[in-house]
Amino acid sequence: MAHCNKVTDRIDILGGGPAGSAAALAALREGARVRVIEKSRFPRHKVCGEFFSPEIAPELEQLGAWDAFLAAGPARVCRTALHFGGHSKITTKSSRLPDPAFGLSRYAFDLLLLDLAGAAGAEVSSETQESPLIVATGRSAKPTQRGQRLFGFKAHFEGPVDDAVELFFFDRCYVGVSCIEGGKTNVCGLAPESFLSRFGFEYDSIVTHSPALADRLQPLQRVTQWFSTGPLQYGQAFANAGDAYLAGDALSFVDPFTGSGLLAAVRSGAMAGKAAAIGQPVAEYLRDCRASLRQPFQVAGVLRRALEGGWAERLAPLAPSHLLFALTRPK
Predict the structure, then answer these.
(1) Of 26, 37, 220, 322, which residue is most buried, by most CB within 10 angstroms?
(2) Which class is domain 11-327?
(3) What does the pLDDT look like over 282-293, one tens digit per residue?
(4) Would the pTM of this model clear 0.85, i.e. be above it?
């Protein structure tokens, strides 16, 4: 289908995070004028696993951001280790990644992308816009019964580093541990409100509740406060996007343990920016995004139900960790 070369005098993008900045860079490469609307001050910490799967390289290369990403000094992540079980028997599934992944803090990455968009010609403003063409404002949540709501938390630690991304599953929650730039380690988890309230939302106590996780963190020292966010709700907005190009978590929020969130944000943002710039109909853009993001969302849903049902530990020995990694990658 033919597309017009210009759909508007200027493309307004609501949100300057990874999806919004990627949209700006992609639209600018198509010759569009761009304004990014972001109310928050950068740099900033965000609750995030801060893990970039290997497929991020070509995405950033297409945006002209790969060299800047490497210059930020991301840690190399070469292995995965999944630990299932709390105080009883621990089952561990380990494997090497097909290609190195990366660890870079959102504090560094978000500013990096937004600065690149500004340097490429995007106007960056805190001025509100009622009808932006691209919406990349992050996830939203519907009211959920208290006690069942999900919350995320994270902090940075210093100490011995490892080249593995590790996930510890216990008591219907999980905590990820992986290295980031500067020799630091990111510790990020997600848990139901009922579990967190048992510890008064004291995250230092929560992460030592699992003996395996406590052993992993024992040589490390926390160097930031704990950051938290929530309540969180998984979902996709392909059916009710309206006239805007939704991108990132505003379009599809997948369970963070898949490790595909940042890849999906950059990819969907870039797709949205190009689609808006060339005048691709929103329905066609959503069709393309759905094809790319459907599999991670569906697989994550199955794994989430296994975790919530308490039978993830029994199924863990049946599924190789490299297969779980492959099934949760966007196509």
Answers:
(1) 26
(2) alpha beta
(3) 999 999 988 877
(4) yes
